[in-house]
Amino acid sequence: MGMPHTAERWTAEQVRALPADGNRYEVIAGELFVTPAPSFDHQDAVQRLFRPIQEYLERTRAGYAALSPAHIELGPDTLVQPDLFVVPLVGGRRPRRWSDITRLLLAVEVLSPSTARADRTVKRRLFQRAGVPEYWIVDVEARLVERWRPGDARPEIVIDALAWQPDPAHAPLVIELPPLFAAILD
Predict the structure, then answer these.
(1) Which partner for 82 in 107, 112, 137, 148 could form a disulfide, CB atoms 3.0-4.6 Å apart?
(2) Is residue 155 part of a domain?
(3) Quick check: 145 and 120 in contact, CB under 8 A?
């Protein structure tokens, strides 16, 4: 996440009105964050994580996966755009409007040099306070995922197989991390 803009206290409504100029704009507790376009490796990582999550959710109907850009409003002064996120179905279907999303089942951020500090602090605390069951911070260079849950003081560091089970009625999704990172970096 880029440097925060501190000239004023921002609202989600003000952020939605900003121009589409290639930057990602987010506001957390009234603080504006501006992030430049991500790297190719970053986008590759997001896509490679999205595919198995999307396929799993299509089979299980345990939620709906989406990618940013997005407008996830977690309060009047908080609007975020996780790289990848999963939301509950609304009436058995995907949400139709951003305002239909009132909670997240999973939020995923792929680290970039400009976002690492904020992803690990500001956004992590936000997602924990909001009760997001899992927040994954994907560190492609280190070839690991930091898994955070609402009550965690420290993350679970996952380097082999990442298992996610949003609905106990279904077997978990298992993502093998070594081949995922090898496909991105090797």
Answers:
(1) 107
(2) yes
(3) no
